Amino acid sequence: MISTTSMTFDDRPSARQVCVFLARYGTALLGCGATCIRLEKNIDRIAASWGMKTSITIMPRHLHITVTDPGSDDLFTAIDEVSPAAVSFSLNTRLSRLSWEVADCHLNYDNTVERFDDIIANCGGRLSRGGELLLVAAANASFCRLFGGDAVAMAVVAVATLAGYYLKILMLEHHIDVRVVVMASAFVSAVLAAGDALFGIGSTPGVALATSVLYLVPGVPLLNSFSDILYRHYICAFSRLVDATVTVACLSIGMCGGMLLMNQGMF
Amino acid sequence: MDWIDLLQDALFAAIAAIGFACISRPPAGAYWCCAVIAAAGHSLRYMLINSPEIGMHIVPATLLASLVVGVMAVFLSPKVRCPAETCLFPALLPMIPGIYAYKSVAGLAMCILHDSPEEFDRYFSLFTFNGLTCLCILFVMVLGATVPIFVFKRVSFSATR
Question: Which residues of chain B have a CB within 8 Å of the CB of A210?
């Protein structure tokens, strides 16, 4: 448990300190999959509670932030790079809560930085590998059922998802390019799902094949990009959309490759 | 429309939402929220499409269902003190038009692999029909789900307070 101290006038951080911290905070938030509007609101909230004003430019891979201290007319600008990280709503939630703690409990600068470092070091939210694999396999099998797949198709999709998702985790741990990872995972899942049609064991082999790769669909970037469009963050929206499109293209290439290998018709 | 089918639809949508939620690592308390919202949204869409009295097309049905998903996410997320997106996105994923997407990609691949103009026309028609349907569903789905966050801005952005 971290003890907290409310901010007094003497604790007021400099524009430079605030700017450097907010650049770190912003890139962490952007990296974990937050929308641009959430980033702006959280940063403004923290800066306002320390008596500062901010101006932010959000680029797809960089955050450009200027902090002004109206009391002393000090002005400081920082540019920080967004590190590519996996989507983590847990981190997003904890960082958003931190911004409210700063605003409502008047956390001082040192306590806020300490708490931020603690959140980054122990962001959590990840299940055990086995638990995650089982849940994703069950989710994709349920997906198959929602699209009209029979019990055999669901079982085939669960196995194909287990294998594909496990490969994805392993390849990402070896820092292999995410596009190659998506292609390889889709290929493996499609090859395994083609077994339903190949051995004629079920009545909905097409559904099994079509749903076997859906766990790779980049849902969060797609949905984030639309939220960014609503708030007129067009550059970020376009970047996320292109990112999602590239992932879908890789997924399609992997799936088509798997189907060609197994000599499966597409209709 | 069979009530058992409707309940099954809700159940499988909830399982799908929980499974896909774990990929994006939400806080532990948010899983039930994702499941409830996904079950409500997907079963509503199922009812709108399959009920003989309503028989709605998939696109407007998706729009209505995703609006309900969006509103539920905005008002349930403060209960678990997490951003609305945390509950919204996994709950929306079971509505992704996977089969249309698959058929449009397959149509495009078959267009390239076939030489005769008749075959090309046939697969091109499949590609455009499925591709357009898929895009329309995606568009209304995202629109319906994000508009409540935009409308109820104050609630949405103070959920983590």
Answer: 98-99, 102-103
Substitution target in A43, A92, A101 with the highest count of B β-carbons within 10 Å is: A92
* Backbone phi, psi, residue A112, to 5°: -65, -45
Q: What is the ipTM of this complex?
A: 0.86
Q: Which of A100, A121, A142 is the last residue of a domain?
A: A121
Range of the domain at A226: 129-261
Extract the residue ranges of chain A whose pLDDT is less than 50.
1-3
In a domain, B116, yes or no: no
Q: Is the pLDDT of residue B80 over 60?
A: yes
pLDDT at B79 over 80: yes
Provide the shortest C-alpha distance from residue B81 to chain A (in Å).
Answer: 8
Domain match, A113 and A228 both: no
**pLDDT given for residue A2 in this prediction:** 45
Residue A4 lies in a domain: no
pLDDT at B1: 65
Least Cα separation, residue B10 to chain A (angstroms)? 9
Model pLDDT, residue B68: 95
* Domains: count for chain B: 1
CB–CB of B42 and A146 under 8 A? yes
- Domain span holding position B17: 3-95+138-156
Q: Are residues A164 and A250 in the same domain?
A: yes
pLDDT one-digit tens code per residue, B55-67: 899 999 999 999 9
Domain check: are A14 and A83 in the same one? Answer: yes
